[in-house]
């Protein structure tokens, strides 16, 4: 065998020996990574769907929460109104009792000065003065109400009618009734209360700028009213809702400093703390 033939045989055998090795290594190169890549991508659609569902759920929860806040606000306003109504009735009863007492005391004084009541003894039959004057005094006691009393009674009735609409949450009708009341009784005893509740109703309807203007009228036109602290507190809240934090703080801090210990001051202080924490 020549050297050339030996080299050819050697190369042939080397090729046969290397073929199985190459065949065994070949399966390593497959399309599995592509499949895995597809598998990795597939869950993205599912995640997007889940995110979308979560977003809808959050929106629904937020809407429900805001609705609950509005309901609580309306209920709180109704409760405030009921408390005010009871306080007003109590003051009216106290005032009526005091007036009756003073009136009775004055009449008794006049009777004593006129010699009609001198002792616990019954008057003598021949005492013509006593028998003639007494009916006149009784006539004074049973006299009908004056025109002023009738006007006050009508004002109170109209106010209670308007306030009843607020209690029943008929806010549109309440606005009409309150504005008519303020037109009919611009200097009435209950005008400051009507002005305050006009702002409350507008605030409940989220007419914030209009509500702000009405509460300002309470402070400007009725500076001695018991509704001034509450109006200032509501102005603080309204300015915050309208995005004017500086003005909101000014009103809230004024309530805390000028009316310490009042419910309006406590509410203002709490609101200020929440503003600082937000």
Question: If you had to describe this structure to a student in words, what would you say it looks like?
Answer:
The chain has three domains: 31-70; 81-143; 146-278, Tetratricopeptide repeat domain (Serine Threonine Protein Phosphatase 5, Tetratricopeptide repeat), CATH 1.25.40.10. The longest helix has 71 residues, at 43-113. It is built from eleven helices and no strands. It is mostly helical and 278 residues long. Helix 5 (147-167) runs antiparallel to helix 6, helix 6 (171-184) runs antiparallel to helix 7 (191-204) and helix 10 (245-258) runs antiparallel to helix 11. It is globular and about 75 Å long. It has helices at residues 3-25, 32-41, 43-113, 128-141, 147-167, 171-184, 191-204, 208-221, 228-241, 245-258, 263-277. The chain is 81% helix and 0% strand.
List strands and helices in order, with pairings.
Elements: H1 3-25, H2 32-41, H3 43-113, H4 128-141, H5 147-167, H6 171-184, H7 191-204, H8 208-221, H9 228-241, H10 245-258, H11 263-277
